[in-house]
Specification:
about 250 residues
Length: about 250
């Protein structure tokens, strides 16, 4: 059983990362390794974190839905693709160690940062028309990232946000909002499979779920008041820091 100071630290950490993670994503790159430090079994940590992420995404999505920022017609096919691919990823958690893919996540996030910096207008104004090729690429990347999202989720939403800005013509506000709705389904299907496998620590999970829901709701309320220019700046800065951190964790 964890000491009370460990509980307090985890609650504070999950609360803060949930507020910031509404824009940046990548909560799991911080929260899961911290759970490892408290001698929580790696698979239980991944599963319990996923349980909390489901509620975090619900809390983040509510303000966006109220303001009608999400185009549900546009997002529906992405949700269906995500449900299938995230279920596949969740089953793979018994076969793959999250540490083995940290380097790939770090490289991907650095690439995301460079691409966003080079393409200066991306995410500032929505594209009126999206080519068939760009749509197909978006669907393929959504499927591939969905597998990773169901497996571990660290950096999943970050990369998904960048994909929708780069190829699906979304602004940063729309992409941030849409990925939160999509991630409800990714986290939920993965959580159900983890529950079936008996990997979720419910005592810890429920406490973190409430913490993450409140934190994400506060974060989403703040995001709706920011311009796309500022969201892009925050996104790039956070992704670059997280990419460097993940790379250093892998090397060290």
């Amino acid at each position: 059983m964890m000491p009370i100071n460990a509980w307090i630290l985890l609650i504070i950490l999950f609360f803060v990362t949930s507020i910031i993670g509404v824009v940046t994503g990548s909560n799991s790159l911080i929260t899961v390794p911290v759970m490892f430090q408290f001698d929580i079994d790696p698979r239980t940590a991944v599963a319990t974190n996923m349980f909390g992420l489901t509620f975090m995404n619900i809390g983040a999505t509510i303000p966006f839905l109220r303001r009608r920022i999400i185009d549900t017609k546009k997002v529906t096919p992405l949700i269906i693709i995500t449900l299938i691919s995230s279920a596949i990823g969740a089953f793979l958690v018994l076969l793959i160690t999250p540490a083995n893919i940290k380097l790939l996540v770090s490289i991907a996030m650095i690439a995301v940062t460079i691409f966003t910096l080079v393409k200066r207008d991306s995410g500032i104004a929505a594209s009126a028309e999206i080519s068939t090729k760009a749509t197909v690429l978006t669907y393929v990347l959504t499927f591939a990232l969905g597998i990773y999202g169901g497996l571990y989720s660290g950096g999943y939403v970050t990369m998904l946000t960048a994909v929708y800005v780069a190829f699906f013509g979304m602004t940063f506000t729309e992409s941030v909002a849409s990925t939160k709705l999509i991630n409800i389904f990714s986290s939920a299907i993965a959580t159900l499979i983890f529950m079936w496998q008996g990997l979720v620590d419910y005592r810890l999970g429920f406490i973190l779920a409430v913490t993450m829901f409140v934190g994400a709701y506060i974060g989403a309320q703040t995001v709706t008041k920011l311009s796309d220019v500022w969201l892009k700046r925050i996104f790039i800065a956070a992704v670059l820091i997280l990419a460097i951190k993940t790379l250093l964790d892998f090397v060290l």
